[in-house]
Specification:
With 155 residues, the protein is mostly beta strands. It contains two helices and ten strands; from the N terminus they run E-H-E-E-E-E-E-H-E-E-E-E. The chain starts with 11 loop residues before the first strand and ends with a strand.
């Protein structure tokens, strides 16, 4: 069918400074969340992104490859600046911090995604007469331990 797709309409972002007691849906749900207002764009969801390890053999001139370490990628968001928004204030605090924050991404039909991440903002822009003032922020996902990514998806 032509209508078997969704858009980002209705998606929300929330932050919590604390880590969950357990890295599962209940652990994340127990946190106190602050919604980030005026979210206008969101791209990229966390998934394992592996580095490729290569070994070049002199005898055959062939290259052998294997998967090495991985990161969880990042989500880039854009917000329309609102100095009165408590979520954007917390986003700024997280940006100035060297500690990871808990992140909750909600989508009406795609579910809820929880993770730990570093908040790494870019420069804010004031726009012009016909462009809103915005802030683009990278949410850089963190592997929480040697045995767990810390990413939880709730459909």
């Amino acid at each position: 069918k032509m209508t078997d797709f969704t858009t980002g309409a209705g998606a929300t972002l929330a932050l919590a400074a604390a880590a969950p007691g357990t890295y599962n849906a209940a652990g994340y749900a127990a946190l106190t969340w602050t919604d980030v207002g005026k979210l206008t764009a969101m791209s990229g969801l966390p998934s394992r992104i592996f580095n490729m390890v290569t070994l070049n053999y002199l005898a055959s001139a062939g290259t052998d490859q294997a998967k090495g370490s991985y990161t969880l990628g990042q989500t880039t968001i854009t917000v329309a600046l609102d100095p009165a928004d408590t979520g954007q204030t917390l986003l700024g605090t997280a940006n100035d911090s060297t500690s990871p924050y808990s992140v909750r991404l909600d989508h009406a039909t795609q579910g809820t995604l929880y993770a730990r991440a570093f908040i790494n903002g870019q420069q804010k822009t004031w726009g012009d007469n016909d462009t809103p003032s915005t802030w683009e922020v990278n949410i850089v996902y963190k592997v929480v331990s040697s045995t767990a990514d810390g990413i939880v998806f709730v459909p």
